[in-house]
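By convention, each integer encodes one residue's backbone shape. The lines below illustrate.
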Amino acid sequence: MVKDIGYEDLQSMREINLSLPGGVIGRQAVFSIFENIIRNAAKHGNYSQQNTNNKNLELELDMYDFLLDKDQNRVKNDSAFSEFLEKNNYLSDLCRSELIVLTITDNLFIEKEETVQKLQDAIDELYVDESGQMINRNKGLKEMKISAGWLRDIENDKLEEKAPPLLSVRKTSDNHLQYIICLKKVKKVCVVLDKIPEGLSRQKLFYTEGWRFYSAPQYLTLKNHNFDLILVDMSINMDLKRRILLYSPNRVKMIDQKEISELKGKQKTDQELYAIYLEKWLKIKGRFIPQLIIDDEKVYYKYKTQSDSYALSLLKDKVRIYNKNYLTEKWNSHQKPDYIYRTHHLEKKQFDNFMKYEIPSEFVEGISGHNSTDRLMRIEEINEIWFFQQSNVVSQQIAILDERLFEKRTGRNEKSILQHLQKIKDKKIFLKTIFYLTETIMGL
């Protein structure tokens, strides 16, 4: 089993933001690593020598952000561990700035001294031989390594210089097996500048809060452009701006020299700046700032004070929280549309009852322990950043690319669309029109 020391330990883990690529696939990669660690513990661990009455397998997880002094200090007293980290590039600038180090340690004693070296040799073994045939052994460890590569978005073990390995194993000072992988840090905001002021791109505080700074050519060479928000220097030439937009998701905002100077001066915290630019972007896109409604007993009692009764108001009434009593509100046709998160309906009867009300809402989502809404509503702190992130989500337009749905909704099939496109004879004019529309929308 995975050891659950208590709620406080879980809370400390939730404070660490990780980038898990591929959503469900990323989670499966983590599960694959844990599954094989459990198998290896059963194969190589010695239950008879446990110094505890608990005969269950326990896994201890520790996360390190070596950009932070507190995490550097945590390993100083263990000289063998510190040397291992240094030797294998876990303390390199690349790892410190881009990766979180995760150690997974079991509670069983290693039965044989040569176990660690055998495991590491198996990890380092090639996947296929010279003839291209799969080497049919140590497949569990290879699966772990492939999963660790997926979590870092690395193909075919192509590591950068001074990068830590995808997977390594060592013996701890108290004779337990410890596996080490790395997870990518979250990248919230990308700032693309014509020229990067000296020292700005490597400010420790910016990096710990998920900010990155690039020149336009550097940005275009990135493998992944999936930032929450991308701020682009207005002074960058038009050709580079166009290329940046083609590579970028839709959350792009142009910034002027005054705003760049504010970033250089660092007069506000990263969190404040993040909230400010999220709000600016929402307003630029013409999206009104909604009122979010949370109708859930657990959220209500999390924020309730002694004086609160019917409903709670947070963030200057941008968020209102009810104790499953939102439907008793009086509706009127002039009320602005609400965005509602409410306790998930367990039965069809409950849902049908909810649908009887003519609620002027544009978005309704159930809060369930089986999806991310439980974490977003009941666990994460409701602050300005949280509010603007949720505002972006609920007001986001979604493009569904499916020819059957398109034909059903519009009555136009693929043949009629192709006939229409054939009428556009001059492709250059068409492309210029697209660029013009793009530049107009983005305010270039």
Observations:
- The longest strand covers residues 99-110.
- The first helix runs from residue 7 to 14.
- The two ends are 55 Å apart (CA to CA).
